[in-house]
Specification:
Elements: H1 2-13, H2 34-48, H3 54-59, H4 63-73
Helix pairs in contact: 1-4
């Protein structure tokens, strides 16, 4: 899952995929703003047919946080 997310985040935020790790902070390190994050989470919900509750979405700060959620919730 982490490799798929690295590719997705790299393309979305125009950064080198190899610089993205599970510890990469979405807003601080990738330069995303709150609208970028909402858009990305909506894309992930559609792509993986999963619902990300608002309180969970607000707690997702790193690429690893997103990967952990998807690993646990995608069938």
């Amino acid at each position: 899952m982490i490799e798929k997310l690295k590719t997705l985040f790299a393309e979305r935020f125009d950064v080198d995929k190899d610089t993205i790790t599970p510890e990469t902070k979405i807003m601080e390190d990738l330069g995303a703003d709150s609208l970028d994050v909402v858009d990305m989470l909506m894309t992930l919900e559609d792509d993986y047919n999963v619902t990300i509750p608002e309180e969970v979405a607000q707690s997702m700060k790193t690429v690893g946080d997103v990967a952990d959620f998807l690993d646990k919730n995608v069938k």
